[in-house]
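Let's do one together. I've listed all components of the complex below, 239 residues spread over two lines.
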Amino acid sequence: MIGGTDIIIPVLNSIDALDLAVRAVRRLWRNVVLEDGNTGEVLPPYKEISFYGMSEVLAFKDSAAAHSWDKIGPDPSLNGTLLHFIVTPNELTVAVDDTPSLQIENFIESLRRALLQDMFVSNAEPRRAA
Amino acid sequence: MHFTDDASYKAISSQKDWKFLASLPPGGNEFGAYFTTLPPDAPRFSARTRIPKDKQIYAFAFTGHQGLQPKAGGKGAYIFWAPTDYLVVDSAGLNGTRQQYHGVSEALP
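Okay, and this is what the predicted structure of the assembly comes out as:
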């Protein structure tokens, strides 16, 4: 039996989307622990991260949460401590708690708006000078 | 693989053919029977699948995925589901392709 809620956001560029999501979560949680979901390796400081070829990032609120997720798994006591980002060519999936907290809901909404804006900007026709 | 709890493990394993009952999982997931290709020792298994720890001790493994569809979004890479009960038949052709695990983390090779 699986759990959690997956929020799927259309994106133009998956690498840029993952980059943006990681920047956003670093602002949400000051002591965030970022891991490559496929390898379980802790990611280096943001400026050293290469998003090329990366498809999953787990963002734990802090090191205590990162430890607890392995030890006790999904548990109500860990609500609001994990954001799971997965990218496919044209989508960013954000996996959250069964019933996400208001803080997480607001984060998702901000991220969705930012990614949507990014799509509009990228699709905009350049204006030509008269 | 299908992970489940003690009661379901006993019910499923007592039958010649394995029947995985569809149910409504927590969160925003659709009614169905769910499976994963991730082994329980995959990095961050709990965080990626959100399968409770008490349901990680019992597992059924089989090959083939007829009738299963990938979950929508990025998790479709390793989570599959069927909208109804899912039957894995113990036919002669499937010999050796089904295994059940009791105490998964210790039993898996």
